[in-house]
Amino acid sequence: WNKKSHFSAWRTGEAFKEAHGGTSIGAFLSTMVSSARVLRGAPRPAFYDGLWVQSRTPDNIPQAVNGWRAVEADGIHTLPAECFVVLQKYFVPSNSASEWEQGWQQQQQQQNDQESMPSGLVVSTLLRRDGQAKGHGVVELQSNEPTYVHCQVFESQAAWQEQKDAVVVEPDAALQTKPSETVYYEGTLVLSSPEGA
Fold first, then answer.
1. 116 Cβ contact list (under 8 Å, min separation 6)
2. Cα 142 vs. chain centroid, distance in angstroms?
3. pTM of the complete model
4. What pLDDT, in 10s, does the model give residues 50-84?
5. Which pick of 18, 24, 166, 169 has the fewest CB atoms within 10 Å?
6. Across the strands, what pairs with 48?
7. How many angstroms separate the CA atoms of 117 and 111, rounded?
């Protein structure tokens, strides 16, 4: 979202309700039971500021109807993956944040325009945790939570495999409280805009 007001509108809108159990009590309870099986405690939102975004203009935009993807789903078969997401988590104390960000920026100067993006990379963004955010369920940043996340979205896992050495960013590890961690996801039902991310 470009503005917090846009996020607030989404969070109180129909899409949020549908994604979190729908509008009936039965659907809501079903979602809560499913969530209770996998969550450790109540869900807590984490807010991030986007510091650096690089994106490619998409070749095609999947069809959407009223903000929802138009797909054939039978409730039995898993939808195919439409992207592969790599999240690199960094744990940087606040007294090292400025120096760490400067080091990051210097490494990214080689990839500051769309033409220099590796093939198969759709979007790359550096996110900084907003420790001042307020709202329902928001708590102070914990020491085991990342202060920065580098999010890269690839067209597929194969595209990432081909380019993974070209997109590695290695900020100064001495400025971090512990080694970085990497998490991988497959994405389905991708939404995009004609301008890119």
1. 110
2. 19
3. 0.75
4. 888 888 888 878 777 777 777 888 888 888 899 99
5. 24
6. 129
7. 6
3-state secondary structure the chain: CCCHHHHHHHHCCHHHHHHCCCCCHHHHHHHHHHHHHHCCCCCCCCCEEEEEEEECCCCCCCCEECCEECCCCCCCCCCCCCEEEEEEEEECCHHHHHHHHHHHHHHHHHHCCHHHCCCCEEEEEEEEECCCCCCCCCCCCCCCCCCEEEEEEECCHHHHHHHCCCCCCCCCHHHCCEEEEEEEEEECCCCCCCCCC
Both structure tokens of 131: 């420790």
| Residue in the structure block whose two tokens are 């790599």 | 86
At 165, list the tokens.
């050495």
Residue 48 in tokens: 């991030």
